[in-house]
């Protein structure tokens, strides 16, 4: 028997006439579909698709093959619907991610992943340790990047920039109409990112600014929460505050300048690179990250 995942990718791509649409239907990446089709072509020893610039077309022999394979998948689906899968034990996907990203971006979106993939349980652990210092093995590790680590496949999925943010209530109490008004405000800092405010102030040519007060936290998510609570102004990462901006909990008093920042990336052990659950989760992250980055850059 040929590999089942490769057959699924071939059936979907052949029926839809598109690797991209097949990837969307199967909740995997375009590259995963292409890889599985190539695997089946190698197994069969014959090409299945004629590849053009923006489309693919079944070979005559592959068209006949699809006519026989397609009904088999339909029969499997009907059999599964009749007999059910109530006894199946869900597979648990293990994820390790940095704390602020997990709290402010991943957790609010995990319900959407579970709704789309009820058969996949996700176990999330937070850690700010470098990837190479992790003592446990995880299916997916989320860290800043892009960086290269031996034995891991890296893919960026969420880009961001940094810019001052605060609550609307704070601006009502203490207006912030120009950069000079910053001296009347409390600046919120994070001990692990001590250069963020100085770098931004240097960019606006105000390196000697003395604010009304400085407040420093040991975790970045605490500084962001303090900004939401109207305590002061934080240097917000646009990707992690997109939901707060959309809901009006935070506002950007200045549209620019924005400091460049590292992207969030998935680091997957090479042994798991083609694991169906890992590919599904990483493809979901890329879709969510693309939507969020598009909003945060506007």
UniProtKB/TrEMBL annotation:
The keyword Transcription regulation applies. Keywords: DNA-binding, Plasmid, Transcription, Transcription regulation. PROSITE patterns: HTH_LYSR. InterPro entries: LysR-type_TF_proteobact-type, LysR_HTH_N, LysR_subst-bd, WH-like_DNA-bd_sf, WH_DNA-bd_sf. It holds the Pfam family LysR_substrate. One of its GO terms (molecular function) is sequence-specific DNA binding. Residues 2-59 form the HTH lysR-type domain. It comes from the Bacteria. The keyword Transcription regulation applies. GO terms for biological process: DNA-templated transcription. Belongs to the LysR transcriptional regulatory family. This is Transcriptional regulator. It comes from Paraburkholderia largidicola.
